[in-house]
Design goal:
Layout: H1 7-17, H2 26-36, E1 44-53, E2 67-76, E3 84-92, E4 108-117, E5 123-133, E6 142-148, E7 162-165, E8 170-178, H3 181-186, E9 193-203, E10 212-214, E11 218-223, E12 231-240, E13 243-244, E14 258-267, E15 273-276, E16 293-299, E17 316-319, E18 324-332, H4 335-340
Antiparallel strand pairs: 1-2, 3-4, 4-8, 5-7, 5-9, 6-8, 9-10, 9-11, 12-13, 12-14, 14-18, 15-17, 16-18
Helix pairs in contact: 1-2
Length: 342
């Protein structure tokens, strides 16, 4: 954008006519003009040429008596346009390949963020800002690497911040995340995809007045394995009157004997099961139904620590995929059992 600087004469006259600078010399009015106007929104490259010559009778050793003439040429500079663009992808961290469908819990994925300076000024302190993520907890983004260009610099490696990104150059960040059973259970909020939305931010030069520059948001998604809640339960008579029972079919229990049953519950699905309880009904016998309790985690086969139980109260709070718990219950043999079950 260009402006004829001669318009200042008209502006100066207008100021004087409004009482600004009245009674001042032309030079003083020019000073008032400089104070009364704001810096223009355009910028120019200015070059001033000076011609110098010696008049007849002048002193060649005295530059003060030289004849001079000057002229200035101004060339408009393009406007500052700070801008960032970000492209986000997600791959299998182990192979570096694109993820297919039905990604199961335990898979380690790698998010990659390619940030390009698409403007015409250098952007500093470039980083990644997470907008929304279906997973939890969030992951750390670092490992910044310049992938395009040679003019950009980074003061501290792998801190998630790129110090100075030159126009036209690209820096890539990355971070890894392990898919959890909770992710599979939640199905990405219901759509079956784990979505991660982010943008890139950085600072434009202070002289431009633009402040923080933010790229458009970009989202990377992948399909989660379908939620499948299943379990198995196995019941075995394991003791009589507290003594181990090797073979229930040869136990020969008598009236008053107490049979101990052990119930083994396995989460055979891919999502956690909560409030796991058992109900045992006597279908052949006259005694009181066993009440399964004393629940205990037997094996933690899936994600370590994902099975939890706050209190031993006959209900197991959370049973993680592939994990195994046990309950116990007792039955007291009655006379009716002996009389009628022979």
């Amino acid at each position: 954008m260009n402006k004829n600087l001669n318009d200042n004469d008209e502006l100066s006259s207008g100021l004087v006519s409004r009482g600004i600078g009245k009674g001042l010399t032309a030079s003083a009015s020019a000073i008032v003009l400089a104070l009364a106007t704001v810096t223009p929104a355009w910028s120019t490259i200015d070059n001033t040429v000076t011609a110098r010559g010696e008049a007849p009778g002048g002193d060649p050793l005295d530059p003060l008596d030289d004849v001079t003439a000057t002229d200035t040429e101004s060339v408009d500079v393009e406007d500052d346009t700070p801008a960032l663009a970000m492209t986000k992808t997600v791959v299998d961290d182990a192979t570096g390949l694109a993820l297919g469908a039905n990604v199961p819990a335990g898979t380690v994925v790698r998010y990659e963020f390619a940030v390009e300076n698409t403007g015409n000024v250098t952007i500093t302190d470039v980083g990644i800002n997470e907008v929304a993520f279906d997973g939890a907890p969030s992951f750390t983004v670092a490992n910044e690497t310049l992938t395009t260009g040679t003019d950009s610099t980074d003061v501290t490696a792998n801190d998630g911040n790129w110090s100075s990104l030159a126009p036209g150059e690209t820096v890539t960040f990355s971070g890894t995340y392990t898919v959890t059973t909770t992710d599979v259970a939640n199905q990405g909020g219901g759509d079956g995809n784990l979505d991660n939305e982010a943008n890139a931010t950085g600072d434009a030069p202070a002289s431009t007045g633009f402040g923080t520059v933010t790229s458009p948001n970009d989202t990377a998604s992948f399909d989660l394995e379908d939620a499948n809640g299943t379990m198995t339960v196995a019941k075995v008579a394991t003791a009589v009157n507290g003594a181990p029972l090797a073979d229930p079919l040869t136990a020969n229990v008598a009236v008053g004997d107490v049979i101990t049953y052990t119930y083994t519950v396995t989460n055979t699905g891919n999502v956690p099961l909560t409030d796991v309880t058992l109900t045992d009904n006597v279908t052949a016998g006259s005694g009181t139904d066993p009440v399964p309790g004393s629940e205990t985690l037997l094996t933690d086969n899936g994600t370590i620590g994902d099975s939890t139980d706050a209190a031993v109260n006959g209900s197991f709070d959370t049973l993680g995929p592939l994990d195994v718990i046990t309950f116990t219950g007792t039955y007291t043999v009655t006379q009716s059992d002996i009389d009628n079950l022979q």
